[in-house]
Design brief:
Elements: E1 3-10, H1 16-30, E2 36-44, E3 47-57, H2 60-70, H3 74-82, E4 88-92
Antiparallel strand pairs: 1-3, 1-4, 2-3
């Protein structure tokens, strides 16, 4: 069963453009990781500095390994330095109804 990795980032208004650009760069890189399936970048309609990324991975282990490897990448470090509060990640599974 695949896993969803949901990232939430909040950038101050004056850093929203930079934050979005570095987030887009991070997710361009993710396509090269083992188990990556897809992602969508969502921007809060009322707060352009509030971003969500919903990504799908083949397994939890694939999502965790990408995080472990990428944590020291300059794009990840840039995102961490730009955010107004720490970025958050949750892992979720799909509920089939």
């Amino acid at each position: 069963m695949s896993i969803y990795s949901v990232w939430e980032s909040r950038f101050a208004a004056e850093r929203a453009g930079e934050g979005r650009a570095v987030t887009e760069a991070i997710w361009r890189d993710m396509v090269g990781f083992e188990g990556y399936l897809s992602h969508e970048l969502l921007v809060d309609a009322d707060d352009p500095g509030h971003l969500l990324v919903v990504s799908q991975w083949a397994t939890r282990e694939d999502a965790d390994e990408a995080l472990r490897i990428y944590a020291s990448h300059p794009n990840a470090q840039a995102a961490n330095s730009l955010v107004a509060e720490p970025r958050r990640r949750i892992l979720a599974t799909r509920v089939d109804g």
